[in-house]
Design goal:
Number of strands of chain A: 50
CATH class of the largest domain in chain A: Alpha Beta
Structural class of chain A: alpha+beta
Strand content of chain A: 25-35%
Distance between the termini of chain B: 48 Å
Shape of chain A: elongated
CATH topology of the largest domain in chain B: Gyrase A, domain 2
Radius of gyration of chain A: 38 Å
Oligomer: heterodimer
CATH superfamily of the largest domain in chain A: Probable tRNA modification gtpase trme, domain 1
Radius of gyration of chain B: 17 Å
Number of domains of chain B: 2
Helix content of chain A: 10-25%
Structural class of chain B: alpha+beta
């Protein structure tokens, strides 16, 4: 295989490493160092894709990340497939598989092109807004699916991404972004200070524009040699970190900059241990932005054919990659830079048909050099059109008259049209940093103005283009960063540049032509297919702000964010409205600078590492017993323990019956636990809970209710007094962090004078709940030093003791209504003690139960669950906890709010029980309740079901509900309308079993 | 009295940390330890010295060391004391008795936390996969400690040597933290 447009010598490719790749199923040759674009150009391939809206054939416009046209999907398999990659920045490796996008059935014959030939006139700017308005229902069912199928970019891969992605935080004193001449000079200057310097560049090698500069000389060296020496110099210094293939994509406040490093995409057989991409979260003391500038297209009719490209891009393909972009070129320019491209391409063997310069009298040194080299230069001339179906064949060049109008064109045969409208400083990151841009009239460009962050720009990204000046600017920026970081810059270094004449020129807007303005397409935004005509239409239809024009026409809204198009769009709008550019404004530059993969943003947070999964000490035991689990916050809790053949209902039924008749075993380790300790502990508890604590005896427990400041129930739990100055507070599983934060907040802000401190002990203790009439007999053999009789150790007591020989806090508490104990042992002993309790319970048929049986058992007893019965708008009285309020207490959080009249309104929703007429019918939790059996829409809803189960103990359904004025309705019937009928239920006290609580005192 | 558990089963009981990546960064479980949270007013650091053998650190984010005991400064009134496992009862009692006269809180959290050591030339690089702090020696010198985050878990991080850290987190976060570090060091396997 040979590549017909590969230059015989030169370039930065490694000719000793040939490789092979495929594009749209066809195999092509390339070399290490090639990009997908350079290798295809070397093979004479310019047709790369179909445009977004009109499906026009498109080729390469650029040689870098600003490429709007040549978007490809890369990846041999779907688990490694990435759509919408820009071919000029896809590094080639052996076996790379790429395909074009947005074409059907094939790239060279695409049915969608009918949009261009026949329908184009019907797809003007604002077309979506105008055409697809009616009928409304058609948008979702017809228009949107059709548009999505016809337009758009690449296809998303179907398989899960098999690559690794990592993220890492990094701190540096100085971050240099970009390593063209300005960035390299800045890095060299910064490195000498000894400060930590991080240097990154999006390309595979440092050097930026120097890598395709064959004519300049820096300190007597070729640019390539200068780069090699500078990089070697930097690499030697231990304080310098160099990152290639690393794009700074986002600049966030406090100098936090996101970098994305492409680690393995350029490797044929990458080590799977390496991340595909590594996202660096860099906190930089000072930043040097050296992001260069982007060449602008000229907006002339049919400026989008394959073979029409930016002048400096063509120069780069020839000089850097030894890929000849064509055989005969017409050069259209408004800037001296294109002359340099013409000269270099001529040297590479490209015939230059002519240079058509818009300017009447260009005078730069490069113009003279081009003329001296025998290149035909036509001044005051423009390209007014091109011909050629899949590749440009002819360019039409016309002379501008004294009024700037184009005359009759002359055709020039060519396979390459180079264009240059001058350069646009790459101010994206500066703008992202919230820096204020300044319009520079002389440059015809926005440049960085006032900084918001600790950064400075150098070189092309602030409109400094002359190489000598760029190097000096970079040095100054590097030294400035060092001083700002309170470092000592070393002796300043100057650079001696020859062979790099200064350039001038540039043009913003549409190029004049003699064509029919109603039909001809001169593209501004290549990726979104926005033409000069569209922008003019937008201004005619009343758009004035560039933000409106942008949204109306979609200019600059593609994935390239208008890198090559925004300034020309501004120029056209400015011309149409006869308003200076600064008054039209500028659209916002947003992150990311170039697209970033979802994988990189996700990093390691996938699968098991998506979020911590918290497990109790006895978790593995429950797994071995075949428990099913439910997530409660980050915890995994055993839900029920099915035996062979049991469904959930049967298992829960059996577990509840065991609790009621013998003994059940439950893992309550996830309950939040806070140790409140200090001389003022009781005082603090008085303030944080509604209940009274001062007189609670040591060794006794109390059920506590915590309110928010607004008087509504926030959390509850049993609290034991371990000592005068020590409380063992329990909270709901999900509420633990919230309760601790709430307490700490009040302690630090309202009660800082109290000598009391809070420590989370949730994970210090494994909690083994043993519940049921046989509970005492099960634990008795294991407990050392506690008289477990009811007389000595009544319900709601706590003792410090030993259980199975390890220090324990033994609570006599119950959330089931049965005699119950909760054994707290240090977590690392939890599994062993659990197994000991289980073994001790074997003779009694001890039954492990899960959260579902716990829920049912507590509902039978009418115990509420905060967050199930309550919804953040329930007072203690609403849920039947009025008794828990210490009426004589001078203060507690929420007390004042409870005194508001509305909090005692008789019509508030109150907790009641519901018994359905048909005991087999189980109400649906969340179902709405109405007062009248004959439901008229809209029904007046008076409450909702909060908990509902089939009660194994009662052999019928039970439910709890919050109902307006509920307590006054006890004895009456209410109705629950469901899709298949209205269910009648009787309102009862919200307690269904052992109303006297005799079983608790067993 | 039935069987007495003689051995602590930590959250890492079944985990092997040995890895080909050890040469770059070694992860290991710290021995089960006695741990106490000590809170209190200004008199506490000096008063605790009677029990501890040295005063609690008063330098911000610094560890005070003595023998096999360490007191990590976590806040102006908060320390995490870590000592050998067998001292759980004796040191707890000694601290309680020493501090009896001054307002304080002493809470046993021996089993609340698990400890990991992360060491080797790439230790800070691997920790920085989840910890946003500057772990350079200048910013985070040997002896510095702080409460911070590792990805989605809260941890206490203490630099014990130029290339070694001890990391403490709550017991149930241990597997997540270890899995996260394991994933991060994959590239050195």
């Amino acid at each position: 295989m040979s590549a017909p447009f590969r230059l015989p010598a030169g370039g930065r490719i490694d000719r000793s490493k040939p490789l092979s790749f495929s594009f749209d199923g066809k195999s092509y040759p390339g070399f290490a160092g090639d990009t997908l674009a350079s290798a295809l150009i070397a093979s004479g391939v310019h047709l790369m894709g179909r445009s977004f809206k009109y499906h026009r054939p498109r080729g390469f416009l650029t040689a870098g990340p600003d490429e709007p046209n040549a978007l490809v999907g890369v990846g041999a398999s779907d688990d490694r497939y990435t759509p919408n990659l820009r071919a000029p920045v896809v590094e080639l490796h052996d076996g790379l598989v790429a395909e074009s996008q947005n074409r059907w059935p094939s790239l060279s014959f695409d049915v969608g092109a009918i949009n261009d030939v026949l329908l184009g006139r019907f797809i003007p700017a604002g077309f979506y807004y105008k055409t697809f308005m009616w009928p409304k229902s058609f948008w979702k069912s017809v228009y949107e699916p059709k548009i999505r199928a016809a337009a758009g970019l690449g296809r998303p891969p179907k398989d899960p991404d098999s690559a690794r992605y990592t993220q890492v935080y990094h701190h540096t004193d100085i971050l240099v972004i970009g390593t063209g001449p300005a960035g390299l000079a800045a890095a060299l200057a910064a490195a000498k200070s000894g400060l930590r310097v991080l240097v990154c560049d999006e390309q595979p090698e440092f050097g930026g524009s120097l890598l395709h500069d064959l004519s300049s000389s820096i300190d007597g060296k070729t640019p390539a040699q200068f780069v090699a020496d500078a990089v070697a110099d930097l690499a030697r210094q231990p304080n310098v970190t160099l990152l290639t293939r690393t794009t700074a994509f986002g600049y966030t406040p406090h100098n936090m900059i996101g970098l994305i490093e492409r680690v393995t995409d350029h490797i044929a057989h990458a080590d799977p241990k390496l991340p595909r991409e590594r996202m660096w979260h860099v906190r930089a003391g000072e930043v040097v932005l050296a992001t260069g500038a982007i060449e602008r297209p000229l907006v002339f009719p049919e400026n989008d054919r394959p073979g029409v490209m930016l002048a400096d891009a063509a120069r780069a393909y020839a000089n850097r990659w030894a890929a000849k972009p064509g055989s005969r070129a017409v050069v259209a320019t408004a800037d001296d830079g294109a002359y340099r491209a013409a000269l270099d391409l001529k040297a590479a063997g490209v015939e230059i048909a002519l240079i058509a310069d818009m300017r009447a009298n260009p005078t730069g040194a490069l113009v003279a050099q081009a003329r001296a080299a025998g290149i035909r230069v036509e001044t005051g001339s423009v390209v007014t059109g091109t011909r050629g179906r899949l590749r440009v064949k002819t360019a039409h060049v016309a002379r501008l008259d004294a009024n700037g109008n184009a005359g009759a064109p002359e055709p020039f045969a060519c396979d390459l049209v180079l264009m240059s409208g001058g350069w646009t400083p790459t101010v994206h990151l500066f703008s992202q940093s919230r820096g204020k841009l300044r319009w520079d009239e002389a440059l015809g460009a926005y440049v960085p103005g006032t900084s918001a962050e600790r950064e400075r720009s150098a070189g092309g990204c602030r409109g400094v283009y002359d190489l000598q000046a760029v190097l000096a600017d970079g040095t100054a920026a590097g030294e400035d960063a060092v001083r700002a970081a309170k470092g000592m810059p070393g002796p300043s270094r100057g650079f001696m540049v020859t062979g790099s004449p200064a350039t001038s020129g540039g043009y913003l807007g549409a190029v004049p032509h003699d064509r029919n303005p109603a039909t001809v397409k001169a593209f501004v935004d290549f990726q979104n297919d926005v033409t000069a005509k569209d922008l003019k239409l937008a201004t005619r239809e009343g758009m004035r702000s560039i933000e409106h024009v942008k949204r109306y026409t979609t200019t600059g809204m593609a994935t390239d964010q208008g890198k090559t198009s925004n300034m020309n769009a501004l120029g056209i709008v400015s011309d149409s409205l006869k308003t200076p550019i600064p008054q039209i404004g500028l659209t916002t530059f947003r992150m990311p600078y170039t697209p970033v993969t979802f994988g990189a943003f996700a990093g390691a947070s996938r699968g098991d590492l998506f979020d911590p999964v918290r497990r109790t000490p006895a978790h593995d035991w429950a797994v071995a017993e075949g428990a099913t689990f439910e997530p409660v916050g980050q915890w995994k809790r055993a839900w029920w323990f099915p035996k062979a053949g049991e469904d959930m209902h049967a298992a829960v039924d059996r577990e509840v019956k065991a609790i009621r008749t013998s003994v059940g075993l439950f893992d309550a380790s996830t309950l939040g636990k806070i140790e409140v300790v200090g001389p003022d502990a009781a005082k603090f508890m008085e303030l944080m809970y509604t209940n009274a604590w001062a007189k609670l005896g040591v060794g006794r427990c109390r059920y506590g209710v915590m309110l928010r400041e607004d008087g509504f129930v926030m959390d509850d739990g049993v609290i034991g007094r371990i000592a005068d100055d020590r409380f063992h507070v329990t909270t709901t599983t999900g509420g633990a962090p919230r309760v601790l934060a709430h307490m700490e907040d009040y302690l630090q802000t309202e009660f800082p004078h109290l000598d009391v401190w809070l420590t989370s002990i949730t994970e210090q203790w494994a909690v083994i709940a043993v519940q049921g009439p046989k509970a005492r007999e099960v634990i008795a053999p294991l407990v050392d030093g506690v008289d477990l009789s009811t007389a000595a150790f009544p319900h709601m007591s706590v003792r410090e003791c030993k259980v199975c020989g390890v220090p324990a806090r033994l609570f006599r508490v119950s959330f089931t209504g049965e005699l119950g104990f909760e054994i707290n042992v240090p977590a690392d002993y939890g599994r062993a003690v659990w197994e000991a309790v289980h073994a001790s319970g074997k003779p009694f048929g001890i039954t492990p139960y899960g959260t579902e049986a716990m829920h049912v058992a507590r509902a039978e007893k009418g115990y509420i669950i905060v967050g199930q019965e309550t919804d953040g708008t329930a007072t203690p009285d609403d849920v039947g906890l009025g008794w828990a309020i210490g009426k004589t207490k001078p203060d507690f959080v929420g007390k004042r709010a409870l005194a508001r009249p509305s909090m005692a309104n008789a019509d508030r929703k109150q907790l009641v029980g519901l018994l359905t007429k048909d005991p087999k019918t189980t109400l649906e939790e969340g179902a709405q309740i109405v007062a009248d059996a004959h439901v008229e829409m809209p029904a007046r809803m008076i409450g909702h079901v909060t908990s509902s189960y089939q009660s194994p103990t009662l052999g019928r359904s039970i439910a709890m509900a919050m109902v307006k004025g509920g307590r006054a309705r006890i004895g009456s019937s209410l109705f629950v309308p469901m899709p298949d009928g209205v269910i009648e239920a009787t309102v009862v006290e919200p307690i269904f079993y052992d109303k006297e609580g005799a079983r608790l005192d067993a | 009295m039935l069987d007495v558990p003689t051995r602590r089963i930590t959250a890492f009981a079944d985990r092997s940390f040995a890895s080909p990546a050890d040469k770059a960064v070694r992860i290991a479980e710290a021995s089960p330890a006695a741990r106490f949270v000590v809170r209190g007013r200004a008199a506490v650091p000096q008063t605790a010295a009677v029990a501890l053998g040295f005063p609690l650190a008063t330098d911000v984010c610094r560890a005070a060391l003595g023998g096999e005991r360490v007191a990590l400064w976590l806040g102006p009134d908060e320390w995490l004391v870590i000592a050998p496992e067998h001292e759980a009862e004796s040191l707890g009692a000694a601290l309680a008795s020493a501090l009896a006269g001054v307002p304080h809180a002493l809470v046993d959290v021996s089993h609340r936390n698990v400890g990991l050591t992360v060491s080797g030339p790439k230790a800070s690089y691997i920790l920085n996969h989840g910890c946003p702090l500057d772990l350079s020696l200048a910013a985070f010198p040997v002896g510095m400690c702080t409460r911070t985050i590792l990805a989605k878990a809260e941890v206490v991080l203490w630099r014990t040597a130029e290339d070694a850290f001890r990391l403490e987190c709550w017991r149930s976060f241990g597997p997540y933290v270890a899995d996260f570090l394991e994933e991060a060091r994959t590239e050195f396997k």
